[in-house]
DNA sequence: ATACATACC
DNA sequence: GACTGGTATGTAT
């Protein structure tokens, strides 16, 4: 087990899987991050989670030991059959674009306050940053880093509070432009979207400049252009901060691109999957292809099917139409709260907020879920499904307060020492 | 159906 | 001193 426990493997370390983070003093940065985190409840919890992942790896390695040549051969045949099927359906006829405004929130703030352009700045608070500009990234300051640690890395860092209404406004301008190119484009967040350019290109024969030179200049917008969504997403990351990258629509180009692609770059393969794969000697997508038989024996069907598609450079060649929402939730973090009455009134407040949001979309749901995080960062969810859909604050609270009471009773005589509470509702009609 | 984990922005 | 919030989906029971 110890082999996984070196500091550099613990999750705290600088995540440099992001544009603008090349060639900085990683050791120094990691040392500062580590010193700011060590001993905190947050850190302790991260270590615990890390150990759970390591146990998963140990279990997987034991399973691997049990696999015989016979098993592998059979699996290999199955994989080969599947590859034939997938190749038959490979579609290189579409042109999918992934657009991603670079450092979006920071870019909007710099547009509105040009002095910030020459300074390292980030958007967020001392508790959490949501993005940083490129000056700040040189110091290792990045999204999802708490501001107080960022300040240690870069004492001159300017932290601008988040201004969502502003970002939403800019976002809707940008979306109007997207709609000109593909009325069915798929927004992934305020600053990111997939577009199907196929039709547009058939009509106009040329690449639009306006996506680059539109009056909104505060933010550059890298594009990834490829025959499917999976590849377009990876491509958009390629020439950040300013460029675009087009992957030709040929099987050879796709396979060559995918060959050297680190698995972590693929959307859907995060930190944990990367670590599991690394333990099997897999770091690039070509390794993924080479070890498919093994993967099919160690992972779930959904997981290995996904891996197989990635290894072949396959992804969705059309942009699925926007799905109905499946859940809605509100959660809040706060200073330690242990008093029952206080927790109850907060719960009530959250239910009211949630009911408000539900009303805006005219939704009612049958499953109510209460989420609790204690001061040790341990998260619990407790759910109850009703036979009828609910929407009002009173109805939701009636369920949530019982879930909360049950939890408190289970812990008593110890109180629930909370740092976060949340309510979720799902199972809409 | 429920709980928890992973992933994305 | 301070380590988010919202949504979807996978995995396990």
Structural shape: globular
The run of helices and strands is HHHEHEEHHEHEEHHEHEHHHHHEHEEHE
Q: Please indicate the count of domains.
A: 3
The CATH class of the largest domain, by name, is Alpha Beta
Catalytic activity: DNA(n) + a 2'-deoxyribonucleoside 5'-triphosphate = DNA(n+1) + diphosphate
Keywords: DNA damage, DNA repair, DNA replication, DNA synthesis, DNA-binding, DNA-directed DNA polymerase, Magnesium, Metal-binding, Mutator protein, Nucleotidyltransferase, Nucleus, Transferase, Zinc, Zinc-finger
Main location: nucleus
Domain UmuC: 96-270
Main features:
3 domains, 429 residues, Alpha-Beta Plaits, DNA polymerase, domain 1, DNA-binding, 4-stranded antiparallel β-sheet, Dna Ligase, domain 1, 5-stranded mixed β-sheet, alpha+beta
Task: Report on the architecture of this protein.
It catalyses: DNA(n) + a 2'-deoxyribonucleoside 5'-triphosphate = DNA(n+1) + diphosphate. It is a single chain. With 429 residues, this protein is α+β, with helices and mostly antiparallel strands. It has 3 domains: 74 residues, DNA polymerase, domain 1 (Orthogonal Bundle); 129 residues, 2-Layer Sandwich (Alpha-Beta Plaits), CATH 3.30.70.270; 102 residues, 2-Layer Sandwich (Dna Ligase, domain 1). It contains 17 helices and 12 strands. Strands 5-6-1-7-8 form a 5-stranded mixed beta sheet. Strands 9-12-10-11 form a 4-stranded antiparallel beta sheet, covered by helices on one side. A hairpin with a 2-residue loop joins strand 5 and strand 6. Helix 2 runs parallel beside helix 12 and helix 16 runs antiparallel to helix 17. The longest helix has 26 residues. The N terminus is likely disordered. The protein binds a DNA duplex (9 and 13 nucleotides) through helix 2, helix 6, helix 12, strand 9 and strand 11.
């Amino acid at each position: 087990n110890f082999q996984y426990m070196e500091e550099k493997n613990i999750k705290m370390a600088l995540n440099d899987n992001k544009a603008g983070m090349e060639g900085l003093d990683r050791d120094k940065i990691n040392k500062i991050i580590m010193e700011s985190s060590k001993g905190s409840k947050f850190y302790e919890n991260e270590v615990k989670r890390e150990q759970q992942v390591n146990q998963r790896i140990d279990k997987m390695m034991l399973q691997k030991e049990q696999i015989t040549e016979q098993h592998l051969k059979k699996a290999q045949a199955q994989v080969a059959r599947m590859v034939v099927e997938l190749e038959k359906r490979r579609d290189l006829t579409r042109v999918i674009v992934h657009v991603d405004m670079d450092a979006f929130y920071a870019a909007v703030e710099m547009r509105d306050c040009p002095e910030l352009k020459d300074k390292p700045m980030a958007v967020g608070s001392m508790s959490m940053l949501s993005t940083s500009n490129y000056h700040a990234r040189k110091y290792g300051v990045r999204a999802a880093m708490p501001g107080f640690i960022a300040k240690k890395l870069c004492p001159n860092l300017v932290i601008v509070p988040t201004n969502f209404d502003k970002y939403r406004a800019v976002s809707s301008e940008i979306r109007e432009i997207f709609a000109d190119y593909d009325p069915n484009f798929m927004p992934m967040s305020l600053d990111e979207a997939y577009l199907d350019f196929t039709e547009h290109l058939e009509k106009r024969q040329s690449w639009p400049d306006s996506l680059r030179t539109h009056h909104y200049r505060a933010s550059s917008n890298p594009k990834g252009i490829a025959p499917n969504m999976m590849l377009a997403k990876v491509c958009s990351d390629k020439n950040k901060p300013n460029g675009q990258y087009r992957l030709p629509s040929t099987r050879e180009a796709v396979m060559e691109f995918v060959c050297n692609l680190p698995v972590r770059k693929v959307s859907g393969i995060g930190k944990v999957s990367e670590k599991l794969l690394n333990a099997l000697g897999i770091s690039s997508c070509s390794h993924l292809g080479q070890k498919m038989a093994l993967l099919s024996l160690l992972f779930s069907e959904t997981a290995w099917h996904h891996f197989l598609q990635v290894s072949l450079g396959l992804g969705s060649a059309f942009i699925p139409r926007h799905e109905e929402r499946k859940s809605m939730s509100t959660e809040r973090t706060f200073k330690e709260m242990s008093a029952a009455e206080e927790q109850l009134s907060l719960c009530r407040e959250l239910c009211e907020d949630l009911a408000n949001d539900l009303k805006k979309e005219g939704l009612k749901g049958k499953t109510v879920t209460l989420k609790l995080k204690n001061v040790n960062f341990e998260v619990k969810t407790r759910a109850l499904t009703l036979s009828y859909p609910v929407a009002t604050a009173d109805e939701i609270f009636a369920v949530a307060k019982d879930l909360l009471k049950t939890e408190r009773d289970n812990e008593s005589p110890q109180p629930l020492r909370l740092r976060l509470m949340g309510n979720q509702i799902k199972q809409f009609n």
